[in-house]
Amino acid sequence: MEWWERLGRIIESRNLDIGGVAKAAAIPVKSVYGYLNGDTPQPRGDRVARLARAVNVTEAELRHGDGSRGLVMLKTIPLLEMSKLGALKTATDPLAVWDGVSQVSVQTDIPDGSYGVRLTDESGEPVFRAGEIVICNPAAEIVPGRYVVAVLTDEDRAVFARYRPAAHRQPRHFFLKPPNDAFPEIEVNGKTHKGFILARAIKHIRDI
After folding, report:
1. How do beta strands 115-118 and 75-81 pair?
2. What is the pLDDT, as a whole number, of residue 66?
3. Cβ–Cβ contacts within 10 Å for residue 94, how many?
4. Under CATH, which number does the domain 76-205 receive?
């Protein structure tokens, strides 16, 4: 069950007024109706937390159900859109394309400096679907066979794929293999594309 479906059931079971919930959460009532319809799976900022407080449950309970009672989501990190990462250049801080509001809740063992990236196309299917989030740690070692987010500077687009070095002692020349076999492997800093690795992906969040 998604969090907005759970919110709708709470409102219905407690006979709550949607307008009153919206007022308590300081969110426009039109937006709350949209959330209840599933129009915005990941609202900006802390809106899910505010809605949870408005109906007297924790954010974890609203997102994950009663099985998460007692779970405290203590840490939030920036959430970036994959579609905007292509504008980055080498050595540019990824937060330069962050909207300053969108965040994702993660466990406290996620390293500081990490950020979430929302996938936006079908190149990750069937394992990674558009709209799902991968947590990236720019300080993590880039290891062959592991997933990374890379920027193709000649195309101004970002790619989520497995990393494969082209040759020993040539770290700048590498290949990227998207999870979806319908998408070809990409050569970077060789004959086809120019670009760089932004960060290694360390966690996949499916239900958020």
Report:
1. parallel
2. 67
3. 20
4. 2.10.109.10
